[in-house]
């Protein structure tokens, strides 16, 4: 049967978009006009500034693998919201906040003074989030390359890149910080010497994979597949939403 609407998730919450919406509506317009994510910004609306980046997880129809990408949600010509059927979108609000606790990437950008006016910060953060989801040990060069499409109008590139490259510097992955209860490094099991670039923070950190890339939620999934998925994510601090 032909469906007349698309269903997508944003930060774990499901939204249905029906044909009453202008078919030219971009994902960015949808996120902002519906007040779903005001943290997702826009500027050029031409795919040139990268300030509208969010992370999108979807299932590759040919391999059935979950793909997680940083996408420019306002590429109006490339990403109308009607293209996003079955996608699981994560925006900066899905990672953390001052009230609920900062995500490690937000925290790092803050500590390196990488947020000047802050307008581009959500995109810088979501870009790194997508990169780390795909590769927990990117090199400094890979990180720099991943940032060639996001402009900072305050031109504070050095502090932004320093913050993001600190993830490459660390001997630990961003999720391997000190366990605040046992006071040991989660990776080595030894007391944290406090010399790595991932020192324990005063507040409990939110897990890196706060929102499961639940792109499979809309697909028929057998119980066995579901348990496999859960086991796979268990180790990575993911949770099914
Ligand atoms: Fe500039 Fe999306 S607003 S790339
Ligand atoms: Fe102002 Fe980047 S911090 S635009």
From TrEMBL:
Keyword annotations: 2Fe-2S, FAD, Flavoprotein, Iron, Iron-sulfur, Metal-binding, NAD, Oxidoreductase
Coiled coil: none
Cofactor: FAD; [2Fe-2S] cluster; Mo-molybdopterin
2Fe-2S ferredoxin-type domain mapped to chain residues: 4-95
MF annotations from Gene Ontology: 2 iron, 2 sulfur cluster binding; FAD binding; iron ion binding; oxidoreductase activity
Source organism superkingdom: Eukaryota
Family, similarity comment: Belongs to the xanthine dehydrogenase family.
Protein name per its UniProtKB record: Uncharacterized protein
Organism for this UniProt entry: Dreissena polymorpha (Zebra mussel)
